[in-house]
Design goal:
By secondary structure, the protein is mainly β. The chain has four helices and 40 strands. The two termini are about 45 Å apart.
């Protein structure tokens, strides 16, 4: 039925174009031609060496009100259901840059889509970028030199299981050397989620099954502002602040079946939760051109604060009797982060470029947990402090030798980490380690349309600071979700070869990873409690073959990605099974129709994944949207996300002799209506802000 609808829509689009062409009289061309205007539709997607670049400003994607939702529409990019984590297929969590400046998820939430010119997914970043990422999402904003202003008001009505509303305001003003930016968003959201887990513990003769649902009422304020002062053509000074303030009220309802030997309990659990998440980020930047050496100098300071609190009241009902209060949990987490950096770039006449710089950063977090047990009238208090200091330096040389383009560089990073409970005399964590991260890439042209490139990189992935706290979530009397203060960084070595032909590419890569992070179970037989948390596995390895095939035919532009992956995850605590290849595929299609209508049809999917330890189900997500602009000021967009309603994800694995089968239901079927009104105009903007916090994506 769905395929018939799509086919009918496509036939309708073709008929519109055909009729529009047939309605032009022949003599109107031969006898009334007064001028010739040559136009070229700019491609929305382009591909170079497997790096996909998206023209946001001139496509339907600029109607999406939120930058995070925009990224979710791009090939190989995956957004978690809570919109707090971003991954690239086969690459893990990417670095995010805005105008070549490091950013995090909170900066994306404060970024106006109207300011975005292009987005590029860089698969093999050089040592110019931090060792933290195996890929980079580079967002480039619009630039201009004219005094003017522009203000945009947007309203999005979103219909999922519950109604969600997004109201946005964005304004730019430029006069002479001074430019000002401000944005404000008020989002009233009602996210819904559900999941269930069946597990068995043979050695304890336990079988359990629970099903949980939660509906959140969320008020979210996102705002930002900044001043940019252009001293001269090469030098500037900027100050910026952005923030996201969020309050949640949500009930969690759980039904549980638990069999322990011959004892069977059916439990209904209700938890009332009040939560807050407040983030503030402030930074100063200064750039100066050193003319005697023809070099560019940059320095900056940055401060970030993240404050999170969760108050929970737990009530359990055993075997259909009555609800009784079990616990009251009060959990607080706060982190303060400071960083300062310096970068120098020197270009030589022979097309060589030398870059070097350094960074110092310091993080200090506190996680406090207070649990009151109603049955025993006892309080359990725990206070944990975490500190981390990083010093890093990098250098990179790039250019061309004869016909070969090259980039060679490395980073050195030293980290000092301490973690201590307030009641302990000796720190639980006390580490001091140094890592070297080389990166190199060589590109050899075969002819004017074909080239081969080879890349090697060593990278690191550090847990975000919230994951390194002691927080936990009560699901039922037998099950907890917990964080892990003992997580260590993940180190990955990667070798990539890429063949480019025109705008099409084939990429083969091999990766080897130590200490990857995945989900795991542990069982406390004294308390009869199962804990679900992330741990470091022993190792993993993967081989992937990636095809990127874009093309354009008349009014139809499409970009297709196919990624074949064979991955094996291993750990001594897990049952390791045979790995099987799986496929990721995506297709982004845009149809530019008469009367400035734009229609998009996008889909992506994953086949069944067997990665040694984990087995997950296949998925297919299909999105559609149509957009129309009136009077160059009003833009209307009607969108439908996941029209097939494929919103169930399953996962199977056995760890510590515990067999588990999990089912997650994601609330991603959405119908939305977006309206944008713009007045005033800034043709280009010169505003620049350089986010110097290389670890900001860890502050959540």
């Amino acid at each position: 039925m769905f395929l018939k609808i799509i086919l009918a829509l496509l036939l309708f689009c073709f008929s519109i174009v055909g009729n529009a062409q047939n309605e032009i009289p022949k003599d109107s061309i031969s006898n009334k031609l007064e001028e010739v205007v040559i136009t070229q539709n700019k491609k929305t997607f382009s591909n170079t060496n497997g790096n996909i670049k998206v023209d946001v400003a001139n496509s339907i994607y600029n109607s999406i009100p939120n930058a995070v939702d925009l990224l979710a529409k791009l090939p190989t990019v995956q957004i978690s259901s809570d919109k707090e984590n971003i991954t690239v297929i086969g690459k893990g969590s990417p670095l995010i840059y805005i105008d070549n400046q490091k950013a995090g998820i909170n900066d994306l939430n404060a970024l106006a889509v109207a300011d975005i010119k292009t987005i590029e997914i860089i698969q093999n970043p050089s040592s110019k970028y931090e060792a933290e990422g195996r890929s980079v999402i580079l967002i480039t904003r619009k630039f201009s030199k004219k005094d003017s202003f522009r203000t945009e008001i947007s309203e999005v009505a979103s219909f999922k299981k519950q109604y969600n509303n997004y109201l946005g305001f964005n304004s730019n003003f430029k006069k002479s050397k001074l430019e000002w930016k401000a944005n404000f968003n008020y989002n009233k959201l009602q996210p819904w989620e559900s999941h269930s887990i069946k597990y068995q513990i043979p050695q304890a003769n336990i079988a359990s099954d629970y099903d949980v649902t939660a509906l959140t009422k969320r008020n979210q304020f996102v705002f930002g502002g900044g001043l940019f002062y252009k001293i001269n053509d090469d030098d500037y000074f900027s100050v910026s602040i952005n923030s996201k303030l969020q309050k949640d009220s949500f009930d969690i309802n759980t039904t549980t079946y638990n069999k322990n030997n011959s004892e069977i309990n059916n439990v209904i659990t209700w938890t009332g939760n009040q939560s807050k998440k407040n983030f503030v980020n402030f930074f100063l930047n200064y750039q100066k051109k050193i003319k005697p050496f023809d070099a560019q100098f940059f320095t900056g300071l940055q401060y970030s604060n993240f404050d999170q609190g969760l108050f929970t009241e737990v009530n359990d009902n055993y075997n259909d009797t009555q609800f009784e209060q079990t616990q009251i949990r009060d959990q607080k987490f706060e982190i303060n982060y400071f960083s300062g950096r310096m970068d120098i770039e020197k270009k030589f006449k022979n097309e060589m470029k030398l870059e070097f710089g350094g960074l110092y950063s310091a993080a200090n977090s506190k996680s406090d947990v207070a649990v009151f047990y109603t049955a025993t009238d006892e309080n359990e208090l725990s206070f944990y402090n975490f500190k981390e200091a990083n010093i890093s330096g990098y250098t990179q040389l790039s250019g061309k030798i004869k016909k070969i383009d090259f980039s060679v560089g490395f980073r050195v990073e030293n980290s000092k980490v301490t973690g201590k409970f307030k009641t302990d005399e000796v720190p639980l964590l006390d580490k001091n380690y140094t890592n070297l991260f080389p990166k190199m890439q060589f590109t050899v042209p075969i002819d004017s349309v074909k080239s081969i490139s080879v890349n090697y990189a060593k990278s690191i992935s550090r847990p975000n600071y919230s994951s390194l706290s002691q927080g936990s979530t009560y699901i039922n009397p037998y099950f907890l979700y917990a964080r892990n203060i003992n997580l260590v960084p993940t180190i990955t070595d990667e070798i990539v070869a890429n063949f480019q032909y025109h705008d099409k590419s084939v990429r083969l890569s091999f990766t080897k990873t130590n200490n990857p992070v995945y989900n795991s179970f542990s069982f406390d037989d004294q308390k009869n409690i199962m804990t679900f948390k992330d741990i470091n596995f022993d190792k993993s390895a993967a081989v992937s073959l990636d095809f990127t095939v874009p093309f354009t035919y008349k009014f139809w532009t499409t970009t297709n990605s196919l990624v074949f992956i064979l991955e094996k995850i291993e750990d001594k605590s897990a049952v390791v099974l045979a790995s099987e290849p799986y496929l990721y595929y995506s297709s982004n299609n845009e149809f530019r129709l008469p009367k400035e209508y734009v229609f998009t049809l996008n889909f992506w999917g994953l086949t069944k994944q067997k990665t040694g330890v984990f087995e997950t189900n296949p998925r297919l997500i299909v999105d559609m949207a149509v957009s129309k602009t009136y009077f160059q000021k009003w833009k209307f967009t009607l969108s439908c996300t996941n029209i097939l309603k494929n919103n169930t994800e399953t996962e199977k694995f056995t760890i510590n002799t515990i067999y588990s089968k999990a089912r997650y239901v994601v609330d991603n079927h959405e119908i939305s209506i977006a309206i944008k009104y713009s007045f005033g105009k800034i043709k280009e903007t010169e505003f620049k802000e350089r986010n110097i916090d290389e670890n900001q994506n860890r502050i959540r």
